Amino acid sequence: MADVLTPGGADEPKELVPLKPLGKVMAITSGKGGVGKTFVSANLAAALAKRGHRVLVLDADLGLANLDVVLNLYPKITLHDVFTGKAKIEEAIIKAPGGFSVLLAGSGMVEYSRLTTEVRDDFLRIMSGLVPHYDIVLLDTGAGISDVVLFAVSLASEVIVVATPEPTSLTDAYATIKVLVGQQKRSTIRMVVNQAARMGDGRAITTQLQQVLDRFVSTDPAKPIRLIHMGDIPADQSVRQAIMRRQLMMQSTPGCPAAMAIAQLAMRFEETVMVRKPAN
Ligand SMILES: Nc1ncnc2c1ncn2[C@@H]1O[C@H](COP(=O)(O)OP(=O)(O)O)[C@@H](O)[C@H]1O
Ligand SMILES: [Mg+2]
């Protein structure tokens, strides 16, 4: 793995050429870790599947993958085997309890947590082949602004930043958004506020972040950056209980407040992201 695309490698550092994001792909990311990306990815996927969509969740948190734990799935074949040429992509895709498909990273993927040309090419090849088979693909990415996270996000047409109302989560969300705007020229970022104490928290937080962006990041009035608040998910004991029992919350407690919030979120995504007017 000599061909690392970061400055300081043995060779001339290569430019990270921006890729054209793939349609129908939503990256679920965050500034800070542990805010609920995997929980949101899995349960939103289940809610969208229940609404009749063909959904694939790809575990793109290569270093700290834990979608397998949340879904209680331990497949023999993972993305790692696809990357190493030991298996075909179709063999690594499995059905999750919520009626959606998953592509799990596997522990071997930790070797790929440095971005090399091979990783980029393999990822892009795998993704391009998969996307046409689904109505929507969710990328459960890692947190922060490492090369791998930013690359995974760059593949997506839509970015969802998950944040909690904690000040540290918000400052980290701001830092991530700033990089996404600067490096990927994103002008629309969607926000989901998880572990909200009160409904309405998320809207207030999004407005606050928007003001800071307008002041310090959106310097060109012709190119405004828009944060779109997609919804709040309350802090709910059922989330932890479901994870402890290795069950999908949408299945184990579909009537709990967090599940109802996710169901609403799914409707909102359906209305705003999945139904697109043709570009003019
Ligand atoms: N809405 C919520 N209410 C209560 N606990 C939550 C909620 N969302 C997430 N958690 C807790 O946070 C932990 C981390 O969530 P996870 O999805 O693994 O985060 P990430 O993928 O961002 O690292 C979960 O194991 C769960 O215990
Ligand atoms: Mg995670």
From TrEMBL:
<dbReference type="GO" id="GO:0005524">
    <property type="term" value="F:ATP binding"/>
</dbReference>
<dbReference type="GO" id="GO:0005829">
    <property type="term" value="C:cytosol"/>
</dbReference>
<dbReference type="GO" id="GO:0009898">
    <property type="term" value="C:cytoplasmic side of plasma membrane"/>
</dbReference>
<dbReference type="InterPro" id="IPR050625">
    <property type="entry name" value="ParA/MinD_ATPase"/>
</dbReference>
<dbReference type="GO" id="GO:0051782">
    <property type="term" value="P:negative regulation of cell division"/>
</dbReference>
<dbReference type="GO" id="GO:0016887">
    <property type="term" value="F:ATP hydrolysis activity"/>
</dbReference>
<protein>
    <submittedName>
        <fullName>MinD/ParA family protein</fullName>
    </submittedName>
</protein>
<dbReference type="InterPro" id="IPR033875">
    <property type="entry name" value="FlhG"/>
</dbReference>
<keyword id="KW-0067">ATP-binding</keyword>
<dbReference type="InterPro" id="IPR025669">
    <property type="entry name" value="AAA_dom"/>
</dbReference>
<keyword id="KW-0547">Nucleotide-binding</keyword>
<feature type="domain" description="AAA">
    <location>
        <begin position="24"/>
        <end position="174"/>
    </location>
</feature>
<dbReference type="InterPro" id="IPR025501">
    <property type="entry name" value="MinD_FleN"/>
</dbReference>
<dbReference type="Pfam" id="PF13614">
    <property type="entry name" value="AAA_31"/>
</dbReference>
<dbReference type="InterPro" id="IPR027417">
    <property type="entry name" value="P-loop_NTPase"/>
</dbReference>
